[in-house]
Amino acid sequence: MEFYLISTLNGVIYGLLLFMVSAGLTLIFGMMGVLNFAHASFYMLGAYVAYAVSSAAGFWVGLLVAPAFVGIVGMLVERFLLRRVHAFGHAHELLLTFGLALIVEEAVKLVFGDFPVNYQMADTLRFAAFTVYGTDYPFYRVFMGIVAIVMFVALWLLLSRTRIGIVVRAAERLPQMAEALGHNIPVVFTSVFGAGAALAGLAGAVAGAFYPTNPNMALELGVIVFVVVVVGGLGSLQGSLLASLLIGLFSSFAVGIDWSAADLLALVGLGDWARTMGGLMTMQVSSISATIPFALMLLVLLVRPAGLMGERG
Amino acid sequence: MRHISLIALVVAGSLSAAPLAAKPLKIGIIESLSGAQTSTGRMFANGVHYGIDRINAAGGVNGEPVEVVEYDNAGGPTEAADKFRQAQADGINIIIQGASSAIAGQLTEDVRKHNIRNPGNEMMYINVGAEAMELTGEKCHFYHFRYTSTAPMRVNALISTMKEQGTLGTRVYSINQNYSWGQDMQAATAADTAMGDYEVVGEVLHDVNKIQDFAPFVAKIKAANPDTVITGNWSNDLLLLMKAAGDAGLKVRFATAFLDQPGNIANAGETALGHYIANAYDNSAADGSFADDYKAAEGHLPTFVEPQAAFAVGALQEALAKVSSEGGDVNVTKIAEALEDTTYESPVGPISVRKEDHQTIRPVVVSKVVKNAKYPADDTDMGFQMVKVVPGEEAIYPVQSSCEMKRPG
After folding, report:
1. Which of A150, A211, B76, B297 is deepest in the core (most CB within 10 A)?
2. Contacts of A290 in chain B (CB under 8 A)
3. For A98-194, where are the E strands, in sequence order?
4. Number of helices (H) and strands (E), helices first, in chain B?
5. For B274-316, what is each residue's pLDDT tens digit?
């Protein structure tokens, strides 16, 4: 019972964190069709900006400034870089954002150094929310979960219930028609990209204080965020939430499982043979827990290529 | 006509001058200077530069300053192999690398093959930080020297010191990264149970630097109820593990190998207090003259892997002094033979080379994180305090039977 409860708790919170980072990516892809490789770099940038600001003006100010700053950077990137290559198709956008990711990584190292910086959460947030089976559960983890949920609800309401949402969706589906109706499509695209980047910046500012802020943080989350978006269905907000939670729970439970393929084969009397084989046969599930999201992605792509909640065609 | 004779004179002059000036010794640092491992690679390069500056300040080799070239291997063996070929073309005599065992595996093989194909024009590899056992096991060869400790040395030192201090306890948990280094640490932890009189209550290997959330692992450790957690984790994997343990209020003592990586102490905060580390050197274990000299040269106190890199070049300097007086071209085989016979007096004790496998026999410093340390880390009031310097003879392990070294000649 203890194992299930704690694993579920950890898995859900980690899943919500993944959602927090991938929400912006989903938004940008869903509304603009741009696969933004530099998304995790915006996340890292958010953490570093929050660190720089918070050491001068406090944690909460950092939390506000970081998304604003990263949002503006995002808008500039869209206006002056992406728009130029947009006409040449997706491959060019992909390459451009990939190059951008490399540049941001090295630039961060130049400015802030190679090592993790000391970005700390506000002391008022540093307490145990509750105790389960003798283990303190840090409030900050709960806080990250709340931020992610608020983010999801706000985005979902914005896109499905407001006029802004209608315009944005129209700009994605039928840009020429929307333009004919008097909407400024380039501005819509710039704003969407900026908003997506700002969400990543906020995620970075929140998560960077819990996980260390270091020059590799974009690299570490960059790939898994793509897995989330692919599993959830490219462009589907609900899909990314579902996929994030699934991946969080799978990774969390996998750690606690000491089974290997050999144990499975032992059920049919082949255990000793499998153990003498070694290699993959004796590898425990817990030691490959970080690989499970990728296996999940493979499975989803085979069975439902559009993703769990993606639209076909 | 005058011009031609002038040119002829210059040409003749330069031709006749050539044999007089000896070829300079060329050292190549093939290190992870971009990508995810920059933080480690840069530190190794710093230590090497410090050592080479000292060689040159003392007059260089054969009256020529040592030339040093940096190659960026971008953190991967493929790029490293590429950079090795470039170093070959540049006429590099000695290559130095330390940040990765995978890259070391590539480079040591490249050097071995180069030496088979180019007799009389050998290269040598001074490994300042790659700790995989195979490098002095099945992959060992005459031109590879390992100037760092390995998993059994670190674990032996940690266990014996913590046992003496009464801080080890009887229940030990082993959590490591799932590749050669982590597996070596796990094996070493399992091998010392009799010596340390403890029981391994759990062992886990996990993916390397891919895990953001260590909370599930902490839950698993807590379920096993250990006194001490021994881990070879480095970089984020160590920091996240310690932070997650601190956040969950887990009361265990960590025995580590890389806790001194810059940024760790500041990020972990009070959670780090009381945790142990076994490494090559700590400022609190020496009289401070090396620390002061290093600070004067490089602008900061020697930290993390910088000292071990500096000691390796220090040993090389002494070896070079034995051969350079003979003049003529650089003879790497002679340098290697001299290095074998060199015992370098580091600030924490002698470092000598074991001829059978070219592993260095060296002291291991065990320290622990305390408040109000003499040498604070990361601008905090915490830092490392030496607990014991375990002499090389005590920390060393037997030569691996897999090493079959073929000596030159």
Report:
1. A211
2. 206-207, 210-211
3. 128-132, 135-138
4. 14, 15
5. 999 999 999 999 989 999 999 999 999 999 999 999 999 999 9
